[in-house]
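Chapter summary example.
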Amino acid sequence: MKAIALRMLITAGVASIFIWFYWSNKQSVGYFAETHDGVTSIQAGTTPSNIAISVLGLALFCVLMQIKIQVEDFHVAPLWRRFAAFLIDFLFSLIVLSSIYAAVPLLVEAARTGSFRWHYERDYWVPTDLVNVILIFVFMANVFMHFAFPLARCRQTMGSFILRIATVSAGGSLLRMPLSTATWRTYKEFAGLCSPWRTIKERDLQGKTWYDRETGFTVVTY
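The structure predicted for these 222 residues follows.
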């Protein structure tokens, strides 16, 4: 009963973050920069409410990292459940991280201009934009680690917890694996998402995907 209540609480928290983010923002959140046909466009922005949402999301993530996985009766998870969990996790990481990371370009711009604004746009590059471009790659790495870190700690991501799926060894055991192994497994899962036809076509009779067999792990539902 306690586990059910906790799952409902975290589900409600994640749903609230999604709803608030997509309904409350009238402007884009994050940092964007591009040059197309000689035209440069740079913008960055966030809001105090978005930062508050991110803090709530980080708090939920920290709570989840304290919950041990309890898998008893289980079977191989269907692909739709895996994809739904991934979609929840991907959107959750984008919302939580982008709202916080967007504050860095705003602070950099404030240091350059001497005036802080919650949103800015301009049509030219400045030397400090290099810091923001580097930040994009750090942001992408953190999104990736949102999937790999819980796996290394034998914990679940938000989507996995909500949809009751877990990654186990070939023998059905939950393992606390090295971060390098968790990173390799996560990379293979992303590769599977990028080649959906192969993932669907090459499932074996047990329902395991090609990257399950290559890495020696599989995803189960319980």
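To summarize the output: Residues 34 and 41 are 6 Å apart (CA to CA).
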